[in-house]
Write a structure and sequence with these properties.
The protein has helices at residues 5-19, 21-51, 70-77, and strands at residues 62-63, 66-67. By secondary structure, it is mostly helical. It has a domain at 1-43. Strands 1-2 form a two-stranded antiparallel sheet. A hairpin with a 2-residue loop joins β1 (62-63) and β2. The model has no long low-confidence stretch (mean pLDDT 77).
Length: 78
């Protein structure tokens, strides 16, 4: 059973009375900004995945089974 046009008009009138015309237009503007940001994020995300080159793995020196950190590396080279 589909609601008639009078029932739909009554629901719309109640929504406008409860929230006000300004509040509804602000809400719709926020929804539109959210959708635009979502689409932009998806578009940017797909470009980053395709164009990103693999990064080289930096070799860290190992002394007697322990990994040498940046500060200790300078001490061992000197």
């Amino acid at each position: 059973m589909f609601p008639g046009w009078m029932q739909i008009a009554l629901v719309v009138l109640l929504i406008v009375l409860l929230f006000g015309r300004g509040k509804i237009s602000d809400l719709m503007g926020d929804v539109a900004k959210g959708i635009t940001s979502f689409r932009k994020g998806i578009k940017d995300g797909s470009e980053d995945v395709n164009t990103e080159a693999p990064k080289a793995v930096e070799e860290t020196p190992v002394i007697e089974g322990e990994t040498v950190k940046g500060d200790e590396k300078e001490k061992t080279e000197a």
